[in-house]
């Protein structure tokens, strides 16, 4: 039905400090690529999303944390906008500023 939601997997956790509702580890050392998780959307709706992240209720909330390794984005990245017009599109309706910081080295 319109507006309904189905979940192939739904996990709820009330664990304590350092707990995770889902923890995936891939220790494979053979081959070229290894993945601990892989999410892809292949539907036909107007808007498809491969992964939605969110965090709330803590002193500091990070919806996405990349703890190690590089982050790779194939297409455009929008910060504050869902319709980026360029490779990187930053939009702030409150007159915010962009801060870039350098370590002073090229490495």
Can you summarize this structure?
With 107 residues, the chain is mostly loops.
Structural summary, described in words:
The chain is 0% helix and 6% strand. With 107 residues, the chain is low in regular secondary structure. The protein contains no helices and 2 strands. A two-stranded parallel ribbon has the order 1-2. The radius of gyration is 18 Å and the shape is extended. The termini are far apart.
Features:
107 residues, little secondary structure, extended, two-stranded parallel ribbon
Global outline: extended
Number of helices: 0
What sequence of helices (H) and strands (E) makes up the elements? EE
Arithmetic mean of pLDDT = 82
Euclidean distance between termini CA atoms: 54 Å
Largest sheet: 2 strands, parallel
Q: Please give the radius of gyration in angstroms.
A: 18 Å
% residues in beta strands: 5-15%
Looking across the biggest beta sheet, what order are the strands in? Answer: 1-2
Number of strands: 2
Class per helix and strand makeup: little secondary structure
Query: Roughly how much helix do the residues carry, as a percent range?
Result: under 10%
Low-confidence runs:
none
Record the SSE blueprint.
Blueprint: E1 77-79, E2 88-90
Parallel strand pairs: 1-2
